[in-house]
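BACKBONE GEOMETRY TOKENS:
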Amino acid sequence: MKPGSTVSVRHRMTIGNALAFFLLGSGMIFLPAHAPELLVANDLSQLSRSALWLNFMGWVNGGLGGFYLAKNAVVPRILRLLEWRPAHTRELITAQILRPAIEIYGEIESGENLREERLA
């Protein structure tokens, strides 16, 4: 690398990184509730500054991870699911769907014609 040159590195949040952020944030949020002996509370409140900081940073990390998980993994899959349409061909429409209806209608018509002939 030459002196004075700049390197442009574009970092992108991957699904794995977003999942790690989400899980780390969730762990940070639930740690004070499930292991209070690790974070000693002061006399005035039930939570210490460390517990409050862990909760805050847990929400920040979990929120970032959840946002990128939704953006990169969940929303594209939902959109792909909503855009899906079954494949249909001209032969399928005319041959397999309409033919049974035409046959049933033909049987009904032939039965009515037979009744009219018998009455006459």
